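hey team, just a heads up i'm posting the complex here instead of the shared drive bc the drive is being weird again. everything in one block, sequence lines first with there labels, then the predicted structure for the whole assembly after. its three chains so it's a bit long, scroll down
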Amino acid sequence: MSEATAPKAVEAPLTFLDDRLGSTTFFKRNMKKVFPDHWSFMLGEIALYSFIILLLTGTFLTLWFKPSMGEVVYNGSYTHLRGVTMSEAYASTLHISFDVRGGLLMRQIHHWAAVLFMAAILAHMLRVFFTGAYRKPRELNWLIGIGMFTLGMLEGLFGYSLPDDLLSGTGLRITQGVAESIPVVGTYLYMFLFGGEFPGQDIVPRLYMLHILLIPGLLLGMVTAHMMIMWVQKHTAMPVKNQTEHQVYGYPFYPVFMAKTGAYFLFTFGVLALLGAFAQINPIWLFGPYDPGAISSGSQPDWYMGPLEGALRIMPNWEITALGHTLSLNVLIPALVPLGIIFGGAAAWPWVEAWVTGDRRHHHVNTRPRNAPVRTATGMAAVAFYGLLWLAGANDILADKFHISLFATTWFFRVMVFVGPFLAFIITKRICLGLQRKDADVIGHGVESGVIMMSPEGKFSERHEPARDEEKQVILSKENARLQPPARDARGIPAPGAKGPLGHLRARLNRAWTFDDIPVEEHGHGEQEEIEGGRTSQEISH
Amino acid sequence: MKRITAWRRRPWAGYAVVLAALVAIGVVYAGFSPRTDRAEAQSTAQAAEDLKNGQKLFDKNCASCHGLNAQGTKDAQGNAIAPSLIGVGAASVDFQVSTGRMPAANPGAQVPRKTPIPTFNTSIKTDYEEKDKREAAEKQKAQAEKNLADLRAYIASLGGGPEVPPASAVDPAKGNVALGGKLFRTNCAQCHSFTGQGGALTGGKYAPPLSKSDVTPTQMYEAMLTGPQAMPVFNDTTLTPQDKQAIISYLVKTREEPNPGGNSLGRIGPVTEGLAGWLVGIGLLVLAAMWITAKKPKKLKKS
Amino acid sequence: MSDDNKETAGSTGPHEQGGRRERVIGTPSPAREKALLAEDDISAPAGVGEQLDERSAKRAERIVAAFFLLAFLASVVFIAYFIGWSGRDGGMHGVTDARETNFWLGGTMALAFLAMAVGVTIWVRRLMTSKPIVQERHELAADEASRAAFNRDFLEGAQDSGITKRPLLRRTLLLAAAPLGLAPLVLLRDLGPLPEKKLRHTFWGEAVKLAQAQGKKGVRLVVDGTNRPLKVSDFATPGSMITVLPEGIEEHLPEDQVLTQVAKAVTILINVPQEQFKPAKGRENWHVNGVVAYSKVCTHVGCPAALYEQTTHHILCPCHQSTFDATDAAKVIFGPAARPLPQLPLSVEDGYIIATSDYHEPIGPSFWERG
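-- predicted structure starts here --
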């Protein structure tokens, strides 16, 4: 078998390439690259494949779309709008929908792919965060991911603004209002963006260029970098048997992973085609052409802009007018602060965590979320914050569908946006610690076997058996947190970094990170009580 | 006989005959005329009876809130419980009662649409197979229509007001749908949403959906004309009857239009789209990922 | 899909108990549980293929082939429908045709992709014989020697180039580069005009001037959409509301500026019952018997604030729910907007409602220079 050569059709081009590029060395080295298996490792792939589908369907749409705000009188096949004056952009979108075969399908797949692209990035980021996969050496890919999500938001906003329908025009109107509110340069920025006053004649062509050229180009570059870095660093693995910090265990790229990821590409395309065929998205013909005097209730942006919309809705009306100038805090704060906290916090987190824990090692094996309670709880607090703002962006729909007072929903979100993350933090942390305690129990105490025994005195008890090996491996993947003693040199003098307010802050945070950690260690049966007792006294001491 | 013949020959005879004929006709007419008077009297009596029926229906169903003279009532603090109905007109009565909003069941932020009470329910099912059942239903429907008409007439008799529009004015087929869309988006969609799906107002009030087929063109017209509850008024001199017909045409044609892209997702925009994207899109793909990465089920050669 | 579960039932039999036991103690999720079980039987050296049971492999092969065939058929139907049916009767035009085309093209496309995806997945799971393998994770950082060598080379190069020794070279190079970097920013200047006073005026001012030039007091208000000028008697019903524009906005402006000017001039006219109307100080004669006009552009971020409740006299912006009181100079009563909606001075001429001047303050969202 080993002497068998590849068929001519494969052999010839490979030889051709190898003669000129020396590619066989590369192929040889990489075709058996190992990819560890876990369903959550495929979330990022949804984003990758959605991106490819976006490029394909988007290219199709450009063949008919006219990015022009020149006015035409519609006389096409959608009868309800015949005779209406509208922009060429809107008219050509109607044309794509109702006169180009498959045009509506491509539009819908394109839009659904955008929704899924952003959703998949967020889901993937949550997976990375909760398993600690952003830690050294993967901080760069974490930053690239945040960058892609931010760019994706802009890309989406610009994209759904192109058809120049009433809903997207309202979104642009809000964008303009937000730009105008920026101190000092706001009005200039607004005029430069729109080429004059809103809506003007330039905004659609400009957004079109940004949407089909500049931002996709940047995204493509970032996707490539993301993939290459992942390839070089190798994927992280879940803390299961056979996975160590030094070795990765899984299936080879060729043929298994290739087939799996190929199948997943097909699944992604299939699900998007399914949505495109059977779920109507962005029916611009129902929204009508943009008209600055018109508005609809329930004017929401696409989901990824939802938190911004929610923040704008629940902000109290603070505005400062002094010295002949106006500062619109009611617009600036919601536009900058909430997502600033989320994205800024996420970007800084790997370094903050390393600083607090003092852990600067490489990590290739993920952490189970329960084993880093503070991280997991912080993540859930962020999820609650983001999610509540997101819901607040749909408060009129909620008020309408559940018959609640509109202002009551606003007040609910005004309060919950502060209380919710706090509650989420506490509850999550408690759950994590509870799960740790249970793990400690399994290791120290064994597993209930279901076998009831009677002692000679007549006492009944259930026999406990040691946990299975695989299970133990997973549980014992926990690194028991140790309080970091303040760094001292050989003579016992504290290191310069440990002094001063920053040093104290670090010490406090480090204690908060570790103090209630429940050690999970292999012990004999009888020592269980001691573990419990030890932990309790430790907890009291803080 | 001779004398008559002689008279006949007189020059004025012809005139006399004509006159006599006229008199005779007059007499015959006169003989009938008391009966005609009776018919007129009967129709006035009928109208009075209808009005009386209208008043009776009012006393029974409406007076408890609107007052015995339809003057409206106030609670102890002087806040209106129910408005005066003097001058609201037939259109308002027709809208409120035919949509089942009146008589109102209990006071809340807003009086909801519901099935009208049997006395006024003009949209009951009549297409029964069995003859007697069908006839009973038809009779009941006719009675309900009469009741509603009587009540309208009674309220209109108290002080005029907008009339119920004729059927030709609300025919959706005749309206300019493009103009209707423009006017709807400018003046109506801010509450009722792009396609009339409805939306939230302040204090638990809401703009009701117009997208269901039980909202009739007549009711749409009457709502614009009279401004029920929180809705502003669009009288016939601000939005002309043609403009109203255009809006009706837009609403009816849009709600009857199929959704070319598949399921409409409620036609309420990106909120449901985002929800579907996360639940269906990400949901299905996570299931697929779990299947792809699940434990291998290969059946190995037994050694 | 279902059948491979059936077949695996036998082979996983021994683990079944283990699985149940785990559930008793409550390992986190079924997925995790599966991942645990998956590691059981593997200890073979890298890359060695396993031997499949030929009978079940044959069956799996047939299943996979059936799915591929289904995908093939779906694609054929896609193409056949497109060529053969979708273009009939003069092609696809209008809602009904689009609906049918979308259903068939989308449906067959989804079927083709999903069938292929399922086929490949079953193939991987049931027929690929590769075993899991182990690879070393290499140290990413270069070793000390390479780093030292690089540092040495780098410094040497810098020395050789003279950049460290000759500060004049270095500084003038930086000086030369700086303006070049600014050049693209300068180029962007012509993206748009400067704001100047544009945001402080609307077309109402111009329209009033035009009307006054013809010896009139002010400009008539026309209904947006029908361009019908409104008489006082036309708008006499209390509780009325309508969107209005200055008369002649479409005639007096070049086509490409109409929308831009409408976006600033759009106004709502409301008939507030006179006994409830509280005219603001200095605006006592800005209304006509309770008929009052406010800018429709919300002072928050510029959505049309158009939702008027005739019972409460609230004007609500549907975008972010800023709420204004129509009876009281559009004062803010709830929501994120900080300022009242600007009011348009109204009067009567020849029985028509007219505006006698532009808005006295900038309409729309706040901006830095607004003051």
